[in-house]
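Hi there,

I know you've been waiting on this one. I reran it after we fixed the sequence typo, so this is the corrected version. Both the input and the resulting structure follow.
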Amino acid sequence: MRVTSTDFKNNFGKYLDLSKQREVHITRHGKPEFRISGTVEERRRVIDSLDGIVKYDGDVDELLKKRLDDL
């Protein structure tokens, strides 16, 4: 998800909550400046919630990175 720095500043709480589910890319003057994402524990919780929905026999961190890159 990409947002302007002004929108991020005005809706900080909203984007802080969203960062627990996906990466938030903050732009300034149309150029990427920052990226925020939830903690490792929060990201693992998201992966755990996919148990039974997504089958994967590899590394959970690798799956998490792939899933987050797809967002």
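Quick highlight: Helices lie at 5-10, 12-18, 40-49, 60-70.

Best,
R. S.
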